[in-house]
Design a protein that fits this description.
The protein has 189 residues and is mostly helical. The protein is elongated, with a radius of gyration of 32 Å. α2 (29-38) packs parallel to α4 (50-89) and α6 (110-119) crosses α7. It is 53% helix and 0% strand. The protein has seven helices and no strands. The chain has helices spanning 5-13, 29-38, 45-48, 50-89, 94-103, 110-119, 121-138. The longest helix has 40 residues, at 50-89. The chain starts with a helix and ends in a 51-residue tail after the last helix.
Length: 189
């Protein structure tokens, strides 16, 4: 629908508002109140004055964004540290444990393994005993417990080929932004 001069005049004449009474402007109270809810714990002018509260709020959001970028790498780091601590309790190295889990096709990531080590220590211990026995059968240097454990590691339980590890692609360009990213191979799609 095209806005012509006649239609524009009709909009003015047929308007529900009185032409001699000013239109009510919307209040910005709700917007300010929402901002003050975020900055209610601040001190002084950052709590009471809208301009200073907005500055404080922008700083809060900026710090939260920076922290959110660090969350995933830190989560990966601490979950691996927890798994290593659980393995030290059972006297096993992380690299042998991880390799034996891949060979036995047990697809658990470090986050799940760390939760097993914390909340289900018996399940984690049985996983460690299984991987220890497998590593011992392959001739790797592992410290076996003095008392014998009943761990079955027959050849028919596990197939020869381990599950391939997931490749994690780096996000974004290179650090200096000078080298373009390489083209993906057909098997990487």
């Amino acid at each position: 629908m095209q806005l012509t001069a006649v239609r524009c005049l009709r909009r003015i004449l047929n308007s529900p508002y009185d032409p001699y009474y000013p239109m009510i402007k919307s209040h910005n109270w709700m917007k300010r109140e929402r901002t003050f809810r975020y900055t209610a714990w601040s001190y002084g002018a950052e709590r009471d004055i809208y301009k200073n509260a907005m500055r404080r709020l922008q700083k809060i959001f900026l710090n939260r964004t920076i922290q959110a970028k660090d969350d995933f790498p830190l989560e990966k780091h601490w979950s691996q540290e927890r798994v290593i601590a659980g393995l030290e309790e059972h006297r096993m190295e992380y690299k042998h444990f991880r390799n034996m889990l891949d060979e036995s096709k047990i697809a658990l990531n470090n986050k799940m393994l760390s939760q097993l080590a914390i909340y289900e220590p018996r399940t984690f211990k049985s996983l460690v005993l299984l991987t220890k026995q497998m590593a011992f059968d392959e001739g790797r240097p592992v410290v076996m417990s003095p008392k014998p454990e009943n761990v079955m590691t027959e050849g028919k339980l596990f197939s020869d080929e381990p599950i391939p590890r997931k490749y994690i692609y780096r996000k974004g360009p290179a650090q200096d932004h000078t080298t373009p990213p390489r083209k993906l191979k057909p098997e990487e799609y």
